[in-house]
Amino acid sequence: MSTTTLPEVETRPESTDSTDSDEPKVFHYVRKNKIAESAVMGTHVVALCGEVFPVTKSPKPGSPVCPACKEIYEGLRPGPEGD
């Protein structure tokens, strides 16, 4: 098994996997610069875990986060501003 270092990525959680109540089951980490484009244009984004979806909702504090995205995000090196 080999490991690779992911490039520095600015990310923030975005939703997918809707429930019957139209609330997402989990939020995924995606590139910040793709969020607005997806929300306005309806284009799809790719989450750190590989999930592909259009941005339709923003997370609220305490929202559930995709475990795979969270693990990948926590393994990334800090960005230039320590983000």
TrEMBL record:
Residues 1-23 are annotated as: Disordered. Pfam families: DUF3039. This is DUF3039 domain-containing protein. The lineage of its organism: Bacteria, Bacillati, Actinomycetota, Actinomycetes, Pseudonocardiales.
